[in-house]
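User: Quick one: structure for sequence A, then sequence B.

Assistant: Sequence A:
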Amino acid sequence: MSDKITRASLGKGGKGQTDWERVDAMTEEEIAQAIAQDPDTFEPGPGWRQRAMILRPGQPKIRVTAYFDQEVVEWFRAQGRGYQTRMNAVLRAYMEGVRKSHPSPHHS
């Protein structure tokens, strides 16, 4: 594992490329159809949450600065001690689910 830190930027002004006016003009059905057609969409199946709660002690960790929705962080914190570990477990389960549904030779 490398100790190298990589920084990514959304470019000038920190804005993404999403056309929010177009998204706001879409119906719920159009949004659902666009999500269903997106090859990067991952829909967690039954039991996903239980797998997300598996804690993996001893895994190497790195410190990062990340921004999450306030409501998300507050919900995890309300679950008690170890909330960051649970957030990591949810992210890991999502990553593993995407890897299973979209195999790629770039995964380590």
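Sequence B:
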Amino acid sequence: MANVLDVANLIISKTGTIDVWKLQKLVYYCQAWSLVWDNQPMFSERIEAWSGGPACVELYQKYKGQHEVKDYDFTSGKIFTSDEIETVDAIIRDYGDKKNYELRMLTQMEDPWLEARGDVPFMHHCENEITHESMKLYYGNLYRKENEFD
């Protein structure tokens, strides 16, 4: 299984220079939709419900203090499956044109982030995990509604 940095590197290799917080949200959507489409997580690291939206601590630590990322590093040797690559491509296609603040607002209106935050006040620190189950349930329902009449 890939780690979150592998997925981030794949995204950066396809998008070029990218805002660090936008990268956090794209990685989150890759994880969520992989759970729906492929019935498995794309990476093992947990995603937390931070005040700025879903975030992965390992990705934050990697790019802490940076506004944008333009370089990627495939030294891990991770080879992605065709399903994983299709998921990343779909996320970039469907969410890649949005600004980081648009993605933040979008994720903050969706149940997985809202449920994980619970009653934590908006600008307060929160390490609550956005679970795989909540992502799969929420995005799975969206997927079924989208494809109901196909």
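The chain has a mean pLDDT of 94. The helical segments are 4-15, 20-37, 57-63, 82-95, 100-108, 111-117, 132-146.

User: Thanks, that's what I needed.
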